[in-house]
Amino acid sequence: MRWRLIVLAIPFALLLPTACKHEEHEASSGGNSGSAQAQSVIQTTAVHAEAVTSQLTLAAKIMPNPTSVVHIFSPISGRVVALKVLPGQEVSKGQEIGTLQSSDAAQARSDFEKAKIEAARADLQLQRAKELLQHEVMAQRDYDDIKALDEADHAELERARQALHILGFSENDTGDTIPIRSPISGVVLDVGTAAGELQRSLDNANAIATIADINPIWVGGDLYPRDLGSVKVGDPVDIAVTGYPGQIFHGTINNISDAVDPVSLTLKVRVVLPNPQHKLKPQMYATMSVTTHKGTAIVVPSTAVIQNGKLTFVFVETSPGKYARRNVILSATHEKTDEIAQGLEDGDKVVSGGAELLRESEDQ
């Protein structure tokens, strides 16, 4: 019995030195120096506080300047004889987009001709009155009355002439149709009538056509009030438009509305973009990315940050070839960099390459 106890104790005693040596190796490799393999690939980077920005993405829509949108109504009642434009067509200022036939046009021309006759007769009467006044045959008071009637007839002639011009007639036209002309250069957004339809002057509910100047053009974004403090007029924006994948339009915020839209509960952010080739069309959908400034933060390469469950840490070089693990708190992550809220100081050297090898060496 005594010999058996001695035999059993020998193996246990042999195991003790081995276990102790293993614990020493773990502390050494996982503490500061790291394994030889890790030392050969480790790269360090000095980190500093940098100005950091973030991107705020807003839903947006292309729209024309409301002051550059013209709804063309018929100046008089009549029947549309011809319509010469279609939606999407470009027109120039003064271009004829249709014609209208109306009895009101004939009445306006008749009024003008009558006014011409009355003005001519008044001129003859005034000329005779001048001769009589010179020969002291007519009293001054009678002459003044005739002169006033002449001026009144000329005023009526001018009114009739202006009425013709408003309708689009020249003084030498003789027909009963009037041209409908575009008052601006732009693009036809909508056509609200067709040849043969009757128009009831300005009482008509639908415009004959709607024309807009879309160069420059507006981009309107929806900004939630909670983000108002991070956006201001003059901030640069990048605009991606549906229909042009991979293409970015650059601009700056021109205006932020002072009232919240009651439907979307957002503030409207306006960007004005040049649009000489009319690539941007009204009602196209877009996204607006606003670069906002957050201040300064310690920025490290993403390769330096290690996630281990709920722990986030980096390795910091304490002395040449010596590294210590340091827990950190992230404030933001990006594609190639991370922002550190707590855990590092300006000038610290972090392991940017080989951090995983140090962790494996530490765990051994």
Structure, explained:
The chain is α+β, with helices and mostly antiparallel strands. It has four domains: 30-51 and 296-363, conserved putative lor/sdh protein from methanococcus maripaludis s2 fold (Beta Barrel), CATH 2.40.420; 57-66 and 213-294, Efflux pump adaptor protein, beta barrel domain (Elongation Factor Tu (Ef-tu), domain 3, Beta Barrel), CATH 2.40.30.170; 71-101 and 177-212, OB fold (Dihydrolipoamide Acetyltransferase, E2P) (Beta Barrel); 103-175, Helix Hairpins, CATH 1.10.287.470. The protein has five helices and 21 strands. The chain has helices at residues 2-31, 36-41, 103-134, 140-167, 355-363, and strands spanning 43-46, 49-63, 69-72, 77-83, 90-91, 96-101, 177-181, 186-191, 198-200, 209-212, 217-223, 236-241, 248-256, 267-273, 285-301, 306-308, 311-319, 322-327, 329-333, 337-342, 349-353. Strands 2-11-14-13-12-15 form a six-stranded antiparallel β-barrel. Helix 1 packs antiparallel against helix 5.
Please provide a brief summary of the model.
This protein has 364 residues and is α+β, with helices and mostly antiparallel strands.
